[in-house]
Amino acid sequence: MYSVSKIENNYDHSLKIILSGDSGSGKTSILSRYFEDIYSDEFPITYTQDQKEKTIILEDKKIKLNVCDTAGQERFRMICHSPYRGVQGIVIVFDLTDFNSFDNVKRWYCEGERYASEGTPVIIVGNKIDLVDLKKNDQVVSNEVIKELADSLGAPYIETSAKYNINVEKLFLNIVQNILYYKGYISTVSPSKPIILKKEPKDKSCIIN
Ligand code: GTP
């Protein structure tokens, strides 16, 4: 079902996605890899927010994608709902080599739950997979624990490397598909099941320490 057609703007859907997560988790790197195919070991810290836009084609439909990169550092973050205004998908990034960034995923989820519209699809991203030597079993958080969290939030989980361009495209494809699925424009999502920000009572799901 593709009833909404923005013929005048020459696209079928216009989607806004937000990247959230701790400072240093790799949000800017993921954004730059996806939009410009650029990676640097020294991206400056995001002080406010940055937006990038491009048009992608999915199932013969033209989609205008606007992705907003937010500041991970608390002191640069205005905790208000403005970055979340009109957001249709949330990407929460953590650093696979930094336990604190994983520990804060719930916190970012709660921020999204508070400011985004009910039912906004979310995806959890473990970035910097290139730094994890699976043979040495040196992950700071086990796959079981990550899966447990993702399941409890009802969100799919994907591992990426912005540095080596692993799964970055797939991540955006997945969130776009989930948004379109949620809106009823497509009937299947691959590879993950559709995910929905659960609206549990705030006191149960969103205790921010
Ligand atoms: P804030 O702007 O403070 O919110 O940080 P951020 O989440 O945007 O992180 P950023 O993209 O600036 O990356 C932080 C550091 O991690 C930089 O030195 C990057 O080069 C590095 N980095 C990002 N992604 C990867 C990755 O996939 N692998 C490796 N090895 N390093 C990465």
Automatic annotation (TrEMBL):
Pfam families listed in its UniProt record: Ras
Gene3D superfamilies (UniProt xref): P-loop containing nucleotide triphosphate hydrolases (3.40.50.300)
Keyword check for Ribosomal protein: no
GO cellular component, one term: endomembrane system
Record GO terms (molecular function): GTP binding; GTPase activity
GO aspect biological process, one term: intracellular protein transport
Keyword tags: GTP-binding, Lipoprotein, Nucleotide-binding
PROSITE patterns associated with the record: RAB, RAS
Similarity remark: Belongs to the small GTPase superfamily. Rab family.
Protein's UniProt name: Rab GTPase
